[in-house]
Amino acid sequence: MSELQSVAATEVPQEATAADRPRSLAADAWRDLRRNPIFWIALGLVAVLVTMAVVPSLFTSIDPRACDLERSNLPPSAEHWFGTNVQGCDVYARTIYGARASIAVGIFSTLLAGVLALLFGMLGGFFGGWIDAVLSRVLDIVLGIPLLLAAIVFGSSYQPGENMGIWPVVIILGALGWTTAARVVRSSVISAKQQDYVQAARMLGASNLRIMFRHILPNALAPMIVVLTIALGTFIALEATLSFLGAGLREPTLSWGIDISSATTRFQDAPWPLLFPAGFLAVTVLAFIMLGDAVREAFDPRLR
């Protein structure tokens, strides 16, 4: 009996120690995210939309460019789920395949904005002094340029009917849309470099490069990812706006903005070529914004 009591006495503190073990910010955030239904709904929508963009043939076997004027503006039916547009193209197939260009522009613009934000925010926040002053002035200049207006001017420089692909749109959106994330990274770096573990690493002889990437970068990534996740939905909406105005993607590229633009003139006669691409666009933007908000609430202790 005494042996059992001694075993129990030794096991209880171990269990208590394991239960009371401090968790990291990422572990606390993941615990909150798992309990948040909005996160799972948004993540499920994003997964479906990304799969649609990568492998559209899983969702339809119809060629989106196979058009027949004899079936112009047909209403939704069993043969054409979303109807047909004025050129006789299947709206459902064009909506599915249009996700690729729109989401690709959003993802690549976000990656470019993330690289620029990380570069400017890390350098300015870590070194400070005149380096921070110069980079902050550059950030203020970029912040003063209206993103949509600059993108319209840049897109209008191409000849009418010229197919410029997605990369000019990616470059202009990414090159002008990194400022908010850069400020977040800079603030995180300034806060992190004052911590004791950074000072200890410096006293042990760690180089600036090692301190930046080994000790400070992990603390700056989480808030930057939150901001960029929300910005991704904004970039997708901006691409659709530019394509709608004729300053973004152009035919023969398939894009929701292009289809919405071409369907506006006949909206009263046939609204479905506009409503379905616009609905998918709205759901996509909302899904990324909801995902970003859920992640932001999980990583910000003040919002718990």
Structure description:
With 304 residues, the chain is mostly helical. 70% of the residues lie in helices and 0% in strands. Helix 3 (37-54) crosses helix 4 and helix 11 runs antiparallel to helix 12. It has 12 helices and no strands. The model is unreliable at 1-20 (pLDDT under 50). It is elongated and about 75 Å long. The protein has a single domain, classed as MetI-like fold (Orthogonal Bundle).
Major β-sheet, in short?
Answer: none
Number of strands: 0
Name the helix and strand elements from N-terminus to C-terminus, one letter apiece. HHHHHHHHHHHH
Radius of gyration: 25 Å
Instruction: List the total number of helices.
Output: 12
Mean pLDDT: 80
The coarse silhouette is elongated
Q: Using the coordinates above, name the CATH class.
A: Mainly Alpha
Task: Please mark out the parts with pLDDT under 50 across 5 or more consecutive residues, or reply none.
Answer: 1-20
CATH superfamily: MetI-like
Task: Predict the CATH topology.
Answer: MetI-like fold
Percent range for helical residues? over 70%
Strand content: under 5%
> How many separate domains make up the residues?
1
Gap between N and C termini, in Å? 47 Å
CATH-scheme architecture = Orthogonal Bundle
Structural class: mainly alpha
